[in-house]
Amino acid sequence: MYSEWTSVKTEVQDLEKCTSVLHHYLPSVGRDVAKSVVTSLLGGGGSSNGSRTPDIGNIPRFRQDSEVKWTMEVVCFGLSLTLMELDTLRESVNVYLDWLTVLTVPKATVPEPILKNPLSYVRQMIYHLQNLFIPRTDGAVSTQVSLCQNVLRTIQNVVQNSMLLDRETWETILMFMLNVCDKLLAAPSQPNGLAEQLCELLMQTFMQVWLLSCARSFPSPPLWKTARLLFAGWRHHPPVVEYWCKITAALTARVVEVTHGPSYPKLKIPDEDLKYLPNDLSNEVMTQTWYRMLHMINNPVDLSNANLISKYQGFFETAFTRDNLQEPAQHPSLAMLPTIFLRALRGISTHVDAFLGISGQKRSEITYPNVLTKISNPETPTIMRKAGKSASRKQGPSTSSLQSKSSSSNVSHKYNTSPGNVSQSPGAASSSVDMHPRPAKDRPHVNSVLNLYGQWLFDAALAGVKLESLQNTRERGEPPKRIYFSVRRSERVRSADLSESGTYLMPSIVERSRRFSIGSLTMRSRSSSGVLSSQVTVGTASSSTIGGLGTSQDGINLAANPLFDSSEYPDSYDAGRSEAFGTLCRIFSCKKTGEHILPVYLSRFYLTMSHGLMEESNQVLASILLNSVNLFRIDLPGITCLLPGVLNALESILPDRELTHFKPYVNVTELRRAAIHLLLSMIPLPLHYDNLPIEDIQLLWSRGTEGEDTSSTVSTSTHQTFRSLKLRIIHQLIGALQCETDPVNAQMILGGMLLALQDSALVESIGHESAQNGGKDGIVQPSENENVAADTAYGFFVNCIYLVSQRLESWKSELSVSLAALELLAGLAKAKIHIVDSGECRRAVRELCRYIVNQCERPPPHHKRELHSMIVAAFHTLTTWLLEHPYLLNDKDCLNEVLEIIELGISGSKSSPGRRGSSGTFGLSSTTGGLLVNGSNEDNKPIFKGDKDLNPASMRVLEAAEGALVCVFEHLGAFPSPCSPSSTCCLLNELSLVRHACGHTPQSSNQSNSGVNDTPLEETQSKSNVTDTPPNESQLDFSDAVKNFRYFVIRNTVLLGVLEQNLGNEQEPVPTVTLVLRSASGRKVHAMQFRQTPRSDKQSSTSYLTCPARPSPDENPGVHHNVRHRTFPEEVDRIPLVKADCSIPMLSEIPDKEQAERVKKIQELVEQQKLYDLNVEKRIQQALNEADDDDPLSLRMKECFPPDPAREFQTARLLLSHLNLMSLSTVKHHAHQRLGPDLVMLNRMDPDFPSDIEDLDSIPVRNNDTVFIFYHKAGQTDKQQILENTSLRTSELRPEFSEFVLSLGWPVDLRKHPGWTGNVSTSWKLKQFSDVEEATIDLNTESPGIFNGDKYILYHADVLTETAFIIPTRQPVTFSPMTFDSVTEVDGDASDRKSIMREKLQLDLASIHSSSSASNESPSSPTGAQQHPPGGARVKKISTVSRTNLQQLPDCRVAVVWTESYEGIDEFPLEDLLSEMYTGQETTGMVGPSRKDMLAIFIHPLENGLFSINVNGQTNTKSGMAVPLVSGIVVSRRALGAAVRMTASNMCHRRRLDSDAYSPPHIKRKHRINELLARYQRRCTEPDFFTAVFAEQHAHKPTLPGRIINLSQRQGSPVNPLPSSGKRPLSVA
Length: 1629
Prior knowledge:
Blueprint: H1 9-12, H2 27-41, H3 65-78, H4 86-99, H5 112-116, H6 118-128, H7 141-161, H8 167-185, H9 194-216, H10 221-231, H11 238-260, H12 271-274, H13 283-294, H14 306-309, H15 313-321, H16 337-356, E1 365-367, H17 369-372, H18 383-387, H19 389-395, E2 403-405, H20 446-461, H21 468-475, H22 487-495, H23 574-589, H24 599-614, H25 618-627, H26 643-651, H27 668-682, H28 685-689, E3 693-694, H29 697-705, H30 710-716, E4 720-721, H31 726-739, H32 743-765, H33 770-773, H34 793-807, H35 815-830, H36 838-856, H37 865-884, H38 892-907, H39 955-971, H40 990-997, H41 1017-1026, H42 1038-1042, E5 1045-1050, E6 1054-1059, E7 1072-1079, E8 1082-1089, H43 1153-1186, H44 1211-1218, H45 1224-1227, E9 1239-1241, H46 1249-1257, E10 1263-1272, H47 1279-1285, H48 1295-1304, E11 1306-1309, E12 1325-1329, E13 1352-1357, E14 1361-1366, E15 1380-1385, H49 1393-1398, H50 1405-1415, E16 1453-1459, E17 1495-1501, E18 1507-1512, E19 1530-1531, H51 1536-1554, H52 1561-1576, H53 1582-1591, E20 1627-1628
Parallel strand pairs: 10-14, 10-16, 16-17
Antiparallel strand pairs: 1-2, 3-4, 5-6, 5-9, 6-7, 7-8, 8-20, 11-13, 12-15, 13-14, 17-18, 18-19
């Protein structure tokens, strides 16, 4: 800086200007003369104690300049007298102090010549006053100190208040200060010496005078150069560096404000330090002053070199004057160098933080006890410090309590009063996850900061390091190791190496060697551009030692490390070196997105870091880890070369639970958190870079300094690949979780484990590891007795299950950690891994069941909301495992255990004895509020469920257990349905069923008589809804369709709708009924038939009800034979007659005439009768031949036929009777039953009933989440600009964005989608649309904004949750122009947005009164239907049944922000975009949540293809952080979409757990069914009930054509053709 200027050091130290003529006389002569003269100059007054009462009349009156000059020669000699002549010395000082008032307020004793020409005399007096500061050894030092302090204060007063000073006088004062300071401070410190007692005041005066001179008469370059040369010799005094730090910090604060504006984060400076800065210091002068003052200390790294400091002249002079000859480097005062070195580096660190804008941020605290042990009262406080002792205590800690942040922005450890820099106590760890600094947005570039401080920091970090020793170490084959691993810890780790099953969990210490290769990066000692070549030189040509230090003091214990010279480098210098390392790490961590850093700076940084990571200095390693959490996620070129070194360092931190060797320096919890941050940023690297080699940076540098060709050498060396580090990283995750006790750290590790497993599973699923592992799809297939390798997905899967299951017991009181662990287990269940042994999955289910039991068994005082939240989450995880692995319930023991746990959750106890937790009741006591243990099953006998009292742990636990039971029985192995996962409910309702029954299906004419529809149902239904619609179909609404059903409530839980009309889908005359079941699990539709013959029978049902067929007639009767029929055989005629045969005479032989007449008359009658009979026979035969067989008057004998089968049935009565629900006991209300009858009939004719049915359908059966995706370009802060980004074509955005978007979910068309759409007004509806064509979405031509919720969204769903992903755009969201013929709510909110916001739930007393009065009437009487408005218009009434209260729903919106610039995260207008995240479920009139409460995931793409994550909104909740994504984690491209989706789902799940008013969907539906029952129950007697069942007729009976309609539970599900045997399902569910 001053190379072209010459120093004025000779002029400053010139003794001629302070020599009097009396010095040439004998000392006694001069002494007598001086005593007489100075006494008279004060008027003759004075005393030995120093007090004076000047007599103005006795003071000489000087008229000539010669008189004054002669007198000044005498006073000059008087100032050089010894302390034995104290009175004369004091009076001489007083004379000059009085005369110096000529520049301010002149006293009466000032001679007239001085008044006329003050400046020339003032300059002479200032030269003479130098004699006072010569150390005396012949008296009390305190007296001289007092006189010197008076002079210095006078100088301060003169420069502050005088307006007469010219440039020459200013330079005289500056040279006076330089000379005085050099005389006192150049020599080594002496206990209680003059220099030690005056040092603070000297530096205070020097800085004040120098700064005032800069403002009023800027010092010349020779003076600056002289000051810089002399200042270097004073640095061994602590106040010198202390005041340099204070002044430069104050100047830095002003420079930052000038260069970056008043809005830039300010460096807070104590007021007592700001007073040194003149008010009239202009910005330009202030900047020049700051830069020169900054470099006045020379190179602060010299403070770490005792040999260099001891080579200054003052040390040699002191050594020569001592009786015992001692090396200058052995002087005791050099023991303060570690403290001074640390203070200088802290001052530089303060400057760097100020420029980066992080000076006011809290960071982890580091203490330096090694420095304190070297200091034991090295100096005695001065009089000024003694006087202000109490004040200094109030201002901050004293010098002896040196405790600072590793990267503290405090200006001074003595004067730490800045409220923005309050440090945390070492014993209290922060609960914040985010540890990386938040620099200012418009901060300077890294190159600019390094241009200022880079040389000092690089040299300080490697102070005392002999770089050439590294090569010698490697040649000897001695890898550097950290030496503080205790035997106890080694034994502990070895004991944890193997699990109970022999699974390898952690690597032993023996395997944690320090051999590694660091990334290939050729080092250069000079920048190619020549910029700052002097600052980037690693070492001189003669030596590679940075700052060789002096010999250490006796008693210092040094660690054996070949990198350091134990004879020169005491370990107490590690404090300053650690400060330098921390500052360097913060500088590089503040790299902006896309910023270019000079390769020479990067190379030197990597070399410096590689040495720091290999040291055994705990302070250095702690400082590096605490300040480098952001290094691997900011796109630093070549940063992966530090990967092995950092991993080695982590292996000494994470598996050690105690960290005893780090406790004196840092909070071990925060140290572990920093190590976890680094580990999370390294998880995807092994699989991302795969088999790429990692070069050894230190070996490359050592060979490069020897002139070897590094390129040829490297090619032949052995490389370590990234893939080889995968196992070490996994071991660190497992080992860290085993040893972790902090909840925040444990959650971070759990998130990293889940992400590592997902990434590994995805890689193996595409076969990336098949070549190396030799197994199919990269899966290792171990035998039964082999240990599973932890670097495979399945091996890691097994280890995670084992470790997390074991640690769940220790986390049972930590809500946040337990939730994270359960989320990890749920993520393991969803991972697509080839399961070799299903027993591992059964183990996970068993451990979950055991966890639930243990939590329920906890004592009553522990049963709080947090505990019940953990149990609810455990049931959720258990359900996930069962749904993802349904084969588990094929195992009898597993099924029994799961059902027992569900029973425990519902009832509070288990029925089966003999198992853990099964005896007794674990529910809450109704009297004490605690748990009943062994209270109800003393005999250990099974308790039947009907005999048990419901006493669950809490209602939330009961609801969670009921939900698990529903999933087991309804969804296990049945999800997703063939149509899609969009809905778990049936997509048919009363309206669609009645439309089918009314003949609105065009396929009716094409049906065959076989009863089989060959057209898939989805085609049939969509055609039926699109074309050939009868004109009267539009007139049929939902309320009309409801009237065709009968409604019952079964056991207060199931709302049963019965349609007795035959849908025409069966040709056989069998009873058919269609049921619409509405329960807590949703709406289901069943078509049921009453069959009495097997479907396998080839004959139809009518064949059993018809006569056998008659034989066919024969038209050829054959030959007719006339045969005489005899009464008796012919042999009778041959028997002779006897008289007895003739005893009865014949009629003709009777002689009597009268008798003859009678006989004749009888014969006539007989003949007449014969004729009559013949006539009748002819007539009958003729009538029979002419009559119709169907004539009821026909005389022909009717043939006996079986009766025709019945075609009209009261199917509702039949079904209920078959279900045993029509008995007196089921319809009669019993007083002892709280729930009422088992079967209750509802009044369907109530005009409000259809709307309340629709409201029941509007309650979703699954939880719904909404994720809004934004694209943020660098520098954008306006809401509209951000929304416009997604309207751009994909080619104008980052190519990974469209890939990420499509990985979140699958596209769905809102015109067909029946699930959650992101808005309640369009969700959960059966949409009867017109002419909807299939559309193909091509993101190569379309913008991502097509998924803005207008026509399309991205959708993902499972059994428990459905998620909508929406990309808002600037254009307002409008509904597509599709024409809805009918819109029916499926399982969503039916209320319009405006009606929700405008109408509040209220109690309608009139409607309740009318409905209650109507319910008391008989079934045949009118039901009190309300009158409709004029004109026939029907107004949909808001039901008084309590609806889903949207004001109580938790906020389950998540913002996912893709930001191109990492710095833009803090600037992103999250609150402004809240209006674009409307779902219709927001609280009415609520105030928008603050930024810290909004759930947001920020994704920043890195140049290496990975993604850095920042999560917002989880720091202020009791439930903690959702996994797998936590702030600071780095994610691979393949795992990003699934990880974001899982994290968003877990975020919303935790919000629901935190909400006091949240109820699961099945509970809401259950309550709504009970409310419908209470409102519409038909209250009647038993006879009236049965009469209504038999006699009631349909209110609306459409014509039923003879056709076939296939009925299915879900719209669009294909119907398989029936086999030839004619099999048909009994019911379609």
